[in-house]
Design goal:
Blueprint (H helix, E strand, L loop, with lengths): L4 H9 L3 E4 L6 E4 L4 E3 L9 H8 L4 E4 L3 H9 L8 H12 L3 E7 L5 E10 L2 E9 L4 H16 L3 E5 L3 H4 L4 E3 L1 H11 L11 H9 L2
Parallel strand pairs: 7-8
Antiparallel strand pairs: 1-2, 3-8, 3-9, 4-5, 5-6, 6-7
Helix pairs in contact: 2-5, 2-8
Length: about 210
């Protein structure tokens, strides 16, 4: 089965996502139960991280370096972000449904970031990376603030883990997830409506 942008759209709308198999090749499909989400109305920013975001240590952008971000996320000893995954999500990005968030240093070095898929009012986070301490966390905080501002209703992170616990990740039953997803898909949300400097100000006053 060839992984295409249209197939990705259909899968995400049904609560399913792919992962590549870098050991044996091929694509495997997943629909976890329970499902990890980050509630947008209860997203927790640790105090030290909030202060860091407010100081604007990085220049934060979106969709300026999607291929670089997804390849950086794949740069590890074992990865599910295989060549077919990279090609399909890059094509989806070119169609406007996959997005990246980038953090840059003062000398325009890519310090960290994340990528995922947006459909309606749902954002499906796929992976994140950092080369400079806290860069991926700063990218996540900016993402959440932008999703809130744009009217999104769901931030899917697939699986909960220790790293996401500090932000308030919760596991919910698949039946609950599918109800939330169905609602989110009816929303005409706006991607990235605010300037990065405004996000820093928002975090400063939380």
């Amino acid at each position: 089965m060839t992984l295409t942008p249209n197939l990705l759209r259909q899968a995400y709308a049904q609560g399913i996502f792919p992962m590549g198999d870098d050991a044996h090749g091929g694509i495997h499909w997943y629909a976890p139960d329970p499902r990890g989400i980050l509630p947008l109305d209860a997203f927790h920013v640790p105090h030290n991280l909030a202060r860091r975001v407010a100081r604007q240590p990085f220049r934060v952008t979106t969709d300026t370096a999607f291929p670089d971000v997804i390849r950086a996320c794949a740069d590890r000893s074992r990865t599910w972000i295989t060549a077919p995954i990279i090609d399909a999500y890059t094509a989806l990005h070119e169609q406007g449904a996959a997005h990246s968030v980038e953090c840059w240093t003062d000398d325009d070095t890519l310090a960290g970031g994340l990528y995922g898929v947006a459909l309606g009012g749902a954002f499906f986070g796929e992976s994140m990376f950092f080369r400079v301490s806290n860069a991926s966390k700063v990218a996540l905080v900016h993402l959440v603030q932008q999703l809130r501002a744009g009217g999104f209703a769901l931030l899917d992170v697939q699986y909960s883990n220790a790293h996401l616990e500090q932000f308030g990740v919760v596991d919910i039953p698949r039946t609950d997830y599918m109800q939330r997803l169905a609602h989110a898909l009816t929303i005409d949300a706006t991607w990235w409506p605010k300037a990065a400097s405004a996000i820093a100000a928002d975090v400063r006053h939380t």
